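User: Could you go from structure to sequence for me? I need the amino acid at each position, not a summary. Structure tokens:
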């Protein structure tokens, strides 16, 4: 019985000593320094410069300057509220581009005599010219003429066609 206790003691001591044994050190990886590799000097991709040419806003069909007609009520030469943004947009453009000039063409519908329509067309063109001058456009950049009923936008008779023809057109020169 005493041998069994001694053997048990020896095994327990050996197990205890084995558990207390420090772990074997793990070899750290060696760091190898490499010289940096040079980047390729040419880009294999097909890269082209982007064209950034400025586009004249007059040539933009969806821009605010695409609308160049100011409409009037029957027998009137007062710029309506719906025409004021057109005048403002073109005035701003002309103020920023002092070298540009415009011709304002006054038009009427076909009702009334020729002399009356010529006079009314002139008054409409002058109304637009004065509205643009009040917004700073130089007089030397504008000219107002009357076309009377000679250049209709819409043909036929009836309020829809007449309304289209009661206008002043802004034509850039």
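Assistant: Here is the amino acid at each position, in order:
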């Amino acid at each position: 019985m005493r041998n069994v206790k001694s053997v048990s003691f020896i095994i327990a001591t050996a197990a205890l000593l084995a558990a207390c044994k420090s772990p074997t050190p793990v070899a750290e990886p060696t760091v190898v320094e490499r010289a940096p590799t040079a980047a390729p000097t040419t880009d294999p991709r097909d890269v082209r410069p982007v064209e950034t040419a400025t586009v004249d806003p007059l040539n933009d069909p969806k821009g605010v300057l695409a609308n160049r007609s100011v409409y009037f009520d029957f027998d009137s030469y007062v710029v309506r509220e719906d025409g004021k943004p057109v005048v403002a947009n073109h005035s701003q453009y002309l103020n920023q581009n002092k070298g540009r000039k415009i011709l304002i063409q006054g038009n009427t519908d076909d009702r009334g005599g020729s002399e009356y329509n010529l006079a009314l067309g002139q008054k409409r063109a002058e109304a637009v010219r004065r509205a643009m001058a009040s917004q700073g456009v130089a007089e030397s950049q504008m000219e107002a003429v009357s076309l009377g009923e000679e250049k209709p936008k819409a043909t036929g008779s009836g309020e829809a066609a007449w309304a289209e023809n009661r206008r002043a057109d802004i034509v850039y020169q």
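One structural detail worth keeping in mind: The radius of gyration is 44 Å.
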